[in-house]
Amino acid sequence: MVGKLIAVLFGLFLAFGAATSADAAEPDLTLEATIEADSLEPYVGEMVLLTLRGDYDAFITLERFEGIELANFTWLQLGRDVWSKSRKNGREYTTVERKLALYPQKPGTLAIGPFRHRLTLDDGSGRRSETIVASNALDLTVKPKPATDGGWWLPAKNVTIDDHWDMDTARLADGATATRTVTITAVGQTAAALPPPPKVVAPWLIAFIAPEIRTTEITRDGPVGTVQWQWRMRPSRSEPGRLPAYHIPWFDTQSREMRDLVMKSRRFAYATITAPEGSAARTRLENWLLPLALGLLLPVGAALHRRRPLPAREILARLRRWLPERDALAMRAARIRGDVRAYRRIAAKRLSRHGHAPEQELAAIDAALFRGAPVQVMDLHSLDRRLREVFHRAEAANEIDAWQRGRGIAARPRG
User: Fold this and answer.
1) Residues with Cβ < 8 Å from 271, sequence gap 6 or more?
2) In whole angstroms, what is the distance from residue 36 CA to residue 101 CA?
3) Residue 236: what pLDDT?
4) Does the pTM of the predicted model rise above 0.70?
5) Nearest CA among 220, 167, 237 for reference residue 49
6) Distance CA 135, CA 123 (A)
7) Phi, psi (5° rounding) for residue 260?
8) Is 365 left (phi over 0), alpha (psi -120 to 50) or beta?
9) Nearest-CA neighbor of 157 among 42, 57, 246, 314?
10) Residue 36 β-bridge partners
11) Which conformational region is residue 243 in: left (phi greater than 0), alpha (psi within -120 to 50 degrees), or beta?
């Protein structure tokens, strides 16, 4: 009787040990996928955060996530996997967490997952086994991107702009070049998603843009994209002008509203110019005193010689042949001094007065002044000879027109 009881107890002990071994041979392995977005139905291009969390009651010797395939999404991993230890129900678990930023590329109901984590386990006695843990699958409803001004679509958690000028463009020193640096930062977007630089074009402005700089910082909450644009600008004319504002629309994913980023308007003028924009500069005394005196004296002199007075246009045209132009003397002085900036400023004003484009005729000087070439190597003598020919042709054409108008002859079109 005692022997049978011992045999029964021994059998129960073996059965309990076998059950315990079976439990030890089947560890608790779970992998869960969750998504986080600022809306239950995000727009195309809006960031969606995906978290993969694995809780493993086992000793892991090797691991790797199998190739992640996400059709209809672009994505990037937000840093390295984070491993930690935790306890649940009195047992120690190994936890791994991987984060991805997903950007849906088309509207509709899109499938996400399942994801697979391949593990190599050690049972504690040196025996190893390989297993694959699969996560749950998810569905995400995505809305088409709305129509926007200009067609640009930029969804982000936040977008900021830093618009910096290195000088006051409303009071530029003669010949000065202003540098504008614009930095745009978007939280929740990569640098590639930020817009291209605006075209800074105005008939009165010379502008050069440096190669843009785009960078993306990876954080656990998503990427932060930055783009930097830099221009060097200078007025090509002495008259003041205004650079218009530039607007960049973007979608605030947290408030679910469209917002506007603005590169503000900017006034350009030389400090020596005091006339307001859109009005003519005040005429200086010497500009009208000499023509007035000549207009009074020359007709009197002609009458004394019993000659019919000439028209005022013809009188002025003859005077221009006899008297050197004041700007011509100033250009000559600047050339002798080797002052390239002063020479360029006076030549641009004189070219504009004669109906020529300063940017075309003075391209060599502009390239030297704006692109860092040494201005000492500029051949002002050969440039001055060419400009004198341009001015001579313009003055000759003006004299012919004046002579024809004085005799009532219609001027023939040039060219």
Assistant:
1) 171, 172, 173, 174
2) 10
3) 85
4) no
5) 220
6) 23
7) -130, 125
8) alpha
9) 42
10) 49
11) beta
- CA separation for the pair 73, 44 (Å, rounded): 10
Is residue 302 within 8 A of residue 275, CB to CB? The reply is no
Q: Rounded to the nearest 5°, which phi and psi values hold at 243?
A: -80, 125
Tokens of 348: 């641009």
249-301 confidence digits (pLDDT tens): 999 999 999 999 999 999 999 887 544 444 444 445 555 555 556 566 655 55
H-state helical runs in 245-379: 285-304, 312-322, 326-337, 340-353, 358-361, 363-370
To which residue do tokens 């000559």 refer? 332
Packing angle of the helix pair 380-406, 340-353 (nearest 10 deg): 20
User: CA-CA distance, 374 to 260, in Å (whole number)?
Assistant: 42
Distance CA 244, CA 266 (A): 7
Q: How far is CA 139 from the centre of its chain?
A: 36
Distance CA 115, CA 99 (A): 13
Which residue is it, tokens 């997952």?
A: 113
Q: What angle do CA 55, 60, 61 make, to 5 degrees?
A: 155
Please state, in angstroms and rounded to a whole number, the distance separating the CA atoms of residues 318 and 346.
24
SS3 356: coil
- Number of Cβ within a 10 Å radius of residue 249: 17
Q: Are 361 and 351 contacting, i.e. CB atoms less than 8 angstroms apart?
A: yes
Peptide bond into 114 cis (omega under 30): yes
pLDDT digits (tens, 9 = 90+) for 389-405: 777 777 666 666 655 66
Q: What is the mean pLDDT of residues 360-380?
A: 66
Backbone torsion region of residue 19, taken as left when φ is above 0, otherwise alpha when ψ lies between -120 and 50, otherwise beta: alpha
